[in-house]
Amino acid sequence: MFNLHHNLSTASVAEKSENIIGWQAQSAITREMFSQKVTTWHASISQIPQHKIALYLSDSIEFAAALFAAWHAHKTVVLTADTLENNCRNLAKEVDVFIGEFPDQYRTQLKTPLPAITNSDFTVGTAPTGFFPVLAESFPALIVYTSGSTGEAQAIPKQWSQLSTEIATLESLFGEKLGSASIYATVSHQHIYGLLFKVLWPFATGRAIYAEALNFPEQLQQHLATGACALITSPAHLKRLPAHLDWVKIKTQLRAVFSSGGPLSIGSVEAVQALWGQTPIEVYGSSETGGIAWRQRVQSHQEAWQVFPQLAWRIAAENNLLEIQSPHLPDTTWFRLADQVNAINQQHFQLLGRQDRIVKIEEKRISLDLMEKALLSSGLVNETRLLLNTELLVEQNSQRQNICAFIVLTEQGQAILQGQGKFALNQQLRGVLNKHVEAIALPRRWRYLDALPVNSQGKTTQAQLLALLEDIEQSQDKLEVQDDSNTLKKQPIKPNWRLLEQEPERALLEIIVPKDLLYFEGHFPIAPVLPGVVQVDWAIHFGRQYFALPANFCGIQALKFQQVICAETPVYMELIHQPQKLSLQFRYFSDAGQHAGGRVLFEQAQTPC
Fold first, then answer.
1. Strand 583-590 with 593-603, pairing
2. C or N: which end of the chain has fewer Cβ atoms within 10 Å?
3. Domain residue limits at 427
């Protein structure tokens, strides 16, 4: 049995430069410093009487120290993808202790306060030798949650044997390719994919990790060029790589790109090949099953998935569903997935779509996968997700089910939308679907987006899509001004907006700039352009709305304006709060690419800038 703690404590890659296990910002963390972190966490966690604890820490190194300390104290760790109120409320039904970056009303349930931990607290050589215990195979190490992309998130228990076996599988398949590469990620370790690939596997094999998630293409450009490395990412982060950035240095340093969370489009595969000189390794699996199969599509026709070693599989005759026996599962029972497959040979299969995307509308069985494939084949649609929505008809005291379509258009589709309008485009796409489904199944509501919303795992969830059905918030911030005829009128000074995603330190909004915005006047008469200073002001305004930012503005770093933002054009605003750095990163982007970005710096009231 492959043992994470044994390998870590015995420094399995002892030749690693300066004994470094990773970096927190610009600070290198040695093995001794990390062991002391584990010791400090263990001193507090071991005093907790409860068996299950919820853990959320955005820094991967700090998270790993707390995780290992909890396991040493024989605690089962419950992971949540975020700390939003609804998730915390549900977690409170399962656990009594919340460790990390949870809201105050939950975090204060901890019986023994955890000490504030900084790198200055550590001295080399103080960590006990042989600290990491050997865990029993049946030890209940984790409870993780499904992503919620196909319904309500479900709790999944994980024994230690499942985790250690999967680490061994990954190393046997890809370890030689990685060598001593350092590990960077765009995805969170709070989900099983990020946990395995960014934390457990690197720590078990002595590969250094970068503690922060890389959220911006500019960060990838900077960090992936510094030395031999591998990137853990998702389709959401790979499908819009900006070609204008200089990626030349990355080609000589990047050893592998891993992607999971959904299949990559062939366009994304080709873009990564062209810009980074790597063919992404796609990993197919789930929270319940762990990894199942992988593929590298060197050529566009190579669609087959290769099963992981020691995994048995078969196809259910009645519905073509995939069934597996795997050491990544808790027992040897055959596990049936909702994915339909076609066998290529004993080691390869092709994915055909999910059975659980068969819905019933007025007793008619409708395949959402079939409808999505039809839309994609039209030449008008680049990406799409269809969703069955249940509406409450108050006046009839009944419910009605209908399908909602969320569409990212191709250039051809955009041309129709801009030239002929939404109704004409709706009718054209309805005509495409008419050839495949009955009229009752045609979408009732259509949303045209620059990109599908994704969470920190790079997945599009049902909750995110349903939120898009809500009306966009109209700007209520207006200023009374006098026009040339001395008439008073009110003009908006803020955009119309909709919150798409919210996490403890990240928010994503869709904004639409109204054409009568006050700041368009004089900037410029022929084609109004949103001024850069306004974009910075809006970032700070919405940053204060969603985060507890310090009171005093201190400065701006890395400010760039790449493309203009015009009126009535949907644009995304992404905000990332870094409280430890007293900063707010922002960027405006759309399918056209990056519009602007920068980092706003703040200072505490008593500290000079």
1. antiparallel
2. C
3. 362-455
**Token pair of 575 as six digits:** 């905000």
- Of 455, 470, 499, the position where a domain reaches its end is 455
Terminal Cα-to-Cα distance of the chain (whole angstroms): 54
Percent helix, strand, coil in the chain, to 5, is 30, 30, 40
Element (H, E) at 104: helix 104-107
Q: Is residue 534 part of a domain?
A: yes
> Which parts of 354-471 fold into alpha helices (H)?
368-376, 411-420, 422-434, 462-468
Per-residue pLDDT for 151 more than 60? no
Q: By three-state DSSP, how is residue 250 classified?
A: helix
DSSP 9-71: HTTTTTTSGGGEEEEETTEEEEHHHHHHHHHHHHHHHTT---SEEEEE-SSHHHHHHHHHHHH
Element (H, E) at 136: none
CATH number at residue 412: 3.30.300.30
HSE-CB for 152 with a 13 A CA cutoff:
5
3-state class of 358 per DSSP? strand
Please tell me the distance from the alpha carbon of residue 316 to that of residue 306, in angstroms, as a whole number. Answer: 19
Predicted structure pTM score:
0.68
Tens of pLDDT, residues 196-246: 999 999 999 999 999 998 988 888 999 999 999 999 998 878 877 888 889
| Cβ neighbours of residue 495 closer than 8 Å, sequence gap 6 or more | 475, 511, 512, 513, 514, 517, 538
Q: What angle do CA 310, 458, 446 make, to 5 degrees?
A: 120
- Say if residue 64 is exposed, middle or buried (CB neighbours under 10 Å; 0-12, 13-18, 19+): buried
Evaluate whether 297 touches 342 at the Cβ level (below 8 Å): no
Contact 442, 170 (CB under 8 A): no
Domain count for the chain? 2
